[in-house]
Amino acid sequence: MKGTVLICCFLSLLHLQATAEEEEDDFISVLRDRSHIDETLRLATEEKSGHYAAALERLRKIYHTSIRPMEQAYKYNELRQHEISDGEITSKPMVLFLGPWSVGKSSMINYLLGMNDSPYQLYTGAEPTTSEFTVIMHGEKIRSVEGIVMAADSSRSFSPLEKFGQTFLEKLIGIEMPHKLLERVTFVDTPGIIENRKQQERGYPFNDVCQWFIDRADLIFVVFDPTKLDVGLELEMLFRQLKGRESQIRIILNKADNLATQDLMRVYGALFWSLAPLINVTEPPRVYVSSFWPYDYAADTSRELFKREEISLLEDLNQVIENRMENKIAFIRQHGIRVRIHGLLVDRYVQTFKEKMSYFSDPELVFKEIVDDPDKFYIFKSILAKTNVSKFDLPNRDAYRDFFGVNPISNFKPLQAQCSYMGGCLLDKIERAITTDLPALLSSINSGKQPGLSSCETSGCDEKPKNRYRKN
Q1: Alpha-carbon gap, residue 138 to 15, rounded angstroms
Q2: Which end of the chain has less neighbouring CB within 10 Å, N or C?
Q3: Residue 81: CB partners within 8 Å, gap ≥ 6?
Q4: Residues 323, 329, 333, 336, CA torsion sign
Q5: Nearest to 223 by CA among 111, 135, 104, 309
Q6: Alpha carbon of 411 to those of 299, 346, 428: distances in Å?
Q7: What is the CA radius of gyration of the chain?
Q8: Rounded to whole angstroms, how far apart are CA atoms 168 and 161?
């Protein structure tokens, strides 16, 4: 009798094992084909690393010799709180994932990188799962990097994050892995927005950290779930931070195969209705509707539409990767224009102060009058009249009241005094970089020519001037 029972139990176990294997085979069979990802992102194409590295080195040299000297002389970093490091110049394009909790941000990164069922896949779930800022980047081997280490490494672009404190650095983690896509781009996964949690409860300035990443992102994916379309104060704050970055924003309506086609149309309209007050632009951001995870679409859904939407998003991502050098040059040139305007304004403040000062004047009262009402002394209008400056690029007047409150006017020299025989004039060098050197570098990239490092001959960036007073 006991033998019969044992045999029956053994047969039941075999049946259960066979059933489990059958279910596992069925589960594997519903995994989605990922070949279109490699094809659309051209991951099999070899990079022209020598050409790209030479262009980066040329760009770095232009910045250090032509833009940074004025930036330091007039303390531009204390006005904009944005200092460009070598790590930021040489960094890969950054793709930032934002949105409410549990909308599929981490699942989407796992899908794009094929990390599902790997030891280093990002944890996902129905509850709020991501409490850290996770940076997924390229490395020779798979390993995790602590936030403190990332901030201490000057070769990376994350050293400025130290200003947010040690509590935040404990919430920052990096994952390095050898992946073809990560050779060209870096992904940043962020904690989900929870409407009933204030940023003070996180222990660090969450909104300020998000702003830091937003300012440096080349592409921003704002991900939504069809069941989480309500807009609260935290989401409103996020979209206020995204103002001026509309060209980088892409809206993703994820998990779209959970709805029938008719319901999906209603949700799509509701999403636009919710976001319309937050995105006040003529042309709204592109919206992608699909389901970004490795498993097949649900039955009786618009799988062809979802597949086309996914390919469109990958093409969008590939466009950012292909244009990364052009975007980098444009970013440095835009930064140079702002530094130049700042230098011209500080110079104008210095000159006005010297003109209004007399032997019996009180320096503090004279300068307070100038800072409180710069229009009375035509500070900003004179910049627009004498130089090729757009009024839309001028900074806020009130910012200079705070700037000079920290940096006394006596600390600065006028631009005409910022010249040397060996180094030339700061204004001439930055104008040459903006009008000649950076456009020439951009032209060499577009034409496919190798940007030679010896092209400093045109900008004079390391060239010693000839002594015109020496007899030959």
Answers
A1: 45
A2: C
A3: none
A4: positive
A5: 104
A6: 70, 11, 22
A7: 28
A8: 8
Asked whether the beta carbons of 214 and 96 are under 8 A apart, the reply is yes
Measured in whole angstroms, how far is the alpha carbon of residue 74 from the centre of its chain? Answer: 26
Reference 185, options 42, 59, 35; nearest CA is: 42
- The pair of structure tokens assigned to 212 is 């830091």
Residue 204's region, left for phi above 0, alpha for psi from -120 to 50, else beta, is beta
d(CA 290, CA 226): 11
- Closest to 141 (Cα-Cα) out of 102, 105, 182: 182
Residues in CB range of 282: below 8 A, 6 or more apart: none
- Alpha carbon distance 41, 26 (integer Å): 29
For 93, what's the count of Cα atoms within 13 Å in the CB-facing half-sphere? 22
How far, in Å, are 9, 71, 169, 429, 453 from residue 346 at the CA level? 87, 12, 35, 17, 33
Which tokens sit at 82? 């944005």
pLDDT tens per residue across all 472 residues of the chain: 545 544 555 445 445 455 444 444 444 447 888 889 989 998 887 666 667 888 999 999 999 999 999 999 999 988 876 778 888 888 899 999 999 888 889 999 999 998 877 767 787 765 555 578 999 999 999 999 999 999 888 778 898 899 899 999 999 999 999 999 999 999 999 998 876 655 556 788 888 999 999 988 999 999 998 887 777 788 888 888 888 888 899 999 999 988 888 888 888 888 888 887 777 666 778 899 999 988 888 888 888 999 999 999 999 999 999 999 999 999 999 999 999 999 999 999 999 999 988 888 888 899 999 999 998 999 998 888 877 788 888 888 888 988 998 899 989 999 999 998 887 899 999 999 999 999 999 998 877 665 654 444 444 444 444 443 344 4
Taking Cα atoms as reference points, which of 47, 177, 49 lies closest to residue 113?
177
The pTM (predicted TM-score) of the whole model is 0.79
Alpha helices in 174-288 (DSSP H): 206-216, 233-241, 261-275
**Phi, psi values for residue 345, rounded to 5°:** -70, -45
The whole-angstrom separation of Cα 99 and Cα 189 is 10
Compute the distance between CA of residue 280 and CA of residue 145 in angstroms, rounded to an integer. Answer: 39
Among the listed residues 245, 212, 242, the one whose alpha carbon sits nearest the alpha carbon of residue 82? 212
Tokens of 346: 């500080």
Burial of 355 (0-12, 13-18, 19+ CB in 10 A): exposed
